[in-house]
Amino acid sequence: MAITGIKGFNDILPGEVEKWQYIEATARRVFELYGLSEIRIPILEKTELFCRSIGDATDIVEKEMYSFVDKGENKVTMRPEGTASVMRAYVEHKMHALDPVARLYYMGPMFRYERPQKGRYRQFHQIGAEITGVAAPSVDAQVLTMLTHFFNELGLTEPSLQINSLGCPCCRPLYRDALKKFLLDRIDSLCEDCKRRYESNPLRALDCKSAGCQEATQGAPSMLDYLCGECSAHFDQTRKYLELADTPYAINKRMVRGLDYYTRTTFEMVTTLLGAQSAVAAGGRYDGLIAEIGGPQIPGIGFAMGVERVALLLAEKEFSRRPDLFIAAMGEEAHAEAFRLMSALQRGGAAVEIDYEGKSLKSQMRRADKFNSRFTLIIGGDELSRGTAPLKNMDGGTQSEVPLDAESIRAGMNGK
Ligand code: ATP
Ligand code: MG
């Protein structure tokens, strides 16, 4: 029996991969407008990094990590997200010594042991961005504006931006207590996980996808009503800057995130088109994270988007690549000439196809059709002896006779 891939681990085949390349290229182009540089981080990290940063009482650390002990008895984990690794690299290479402000983006696979379904996989891909060293709310607005810009650039009207604040270590404990008080009466409706985490991480219940928890948390108090003066001012200022940047948003009072390191501004780009997989991108401020993993007290903010979910939103768009020219040839000599011309034209930067096997003209024309090339050139014995051949524009149907050299063919395709 043929060996198959592993459940939840997907191949991205030609036809689909063009969409991915488009998403990645758009991200690079847009993020670089905002001064970000790419960072490439490893897939494997010490397990401890994720336990400490993401938090022990989170879904990711409790049940979703691909962790194992390697041959040297080291506890390692295939990264479930990128922020922890980027911050580990930032601290390890003392990037802050030169300038605490780092503006970074990354892209690549992440791994979580979840139940695979549409928009949820075990190996999935994120494009993420992080900005360290700025506590000012204008940078929160800048990050959100960049993310919105990216989705606009893809031509998507979904998803839309929702924001909230999770406060800081000064005000969140008050909110936690209020939420615990609220949940105490409803504790029987919570799912087993949320019951268990009632003491260690009651906020999880707000984010839980189980129907019981959704129901039980209706009307729960909002963090926004418990923000301390500074967090409240930060939230107001973030909104002011979002308005200055003309970035539309809505406030979602019950949004909490699945990772413990967030403080103050948190946000999601949400869609109604992907069922329970409604978050296409998500992130927030993490002013305590860098210190938590052993670095200096430096603030940060960032997000990650799920590339599979972005690709699903782009489902309608056509991405197949189109060669510039298909050269059909009749006879051995013409076939050799077609090969010579193809090679010269490709070196000059044109995308050219021929039929390598030199089949019948009819089957060659079928291939030309399949490639949907912009032009076709047909070479037979007559054309070889004349030294010219008909170059047909497949879109306009117009035809011109061009000399059989790469330069003339290129000029013909450029309409000269
Ligand atoms: P969800 O609530 O859907 O589980 P999450 O809160 O766990 O998402 P984050 O950890 O914030 O997600 O990751 C950021 C983004 O990565 C998500 O908004 C989503 O687009 C994508 N993502 C997360 N987990 C998966 C997965 N298992 N498969 C595909 N994409 C994912
Ligand atoms: Mg999740």
TrEMBL record:
Start and end residues of each stretch annotated as Disordered: 388-416
Sequence ranges assigned to domain Aminoacyl-transfer RNA synthetases class-II family profile in this UniProt record: 23-323
Gene Ontology CC terms: cytoplasm
Organism superkingdom: Bacteria
A GO MF label: histidine-tRNA ligase activity
Keyword Signal set for record: no
Pfam families: HGTP_anticodon, tRNA-synt_His
InterPro entries in the cross-refs: aa-tRNA-synth_II, aa-tRNA-synth_II/BPL/LPL, Anticodon-bd, Anticodon-bd_dom_sf, His-tRNA-ligase, HisRS-like_core, HisRS/HisZ, HisRS_anticodon
Residue ranges that the Swiss-Prot or TrEMBL entry lists as coiled coil: none
Gene Ontology BP annotations: histidyl-tRNA aminoacylation
Positions bound to L-histidine: E81, G82, T83, R112, Q126, E130, R257, Y261, Y262
Family: Belongs to the class-II aminoacyl-tRNA synthetase family.
Classification via PANTHER family: HISTIDINE--TRNA LIGASE, MITOCHONDRIAL-RELATED, HISTIDYL-TRNA SYNTHETASE
Record note on quaternary structure: Homodimer.
Protein name as annotated: Histidine--tRNA ligase
Source organism per UniProt: Citrifermentans bemidjiense (strain ATCC BAA-1014 / DSM 16622 / JCM 12645 / Bem) (Geobacter bemidjiensis)
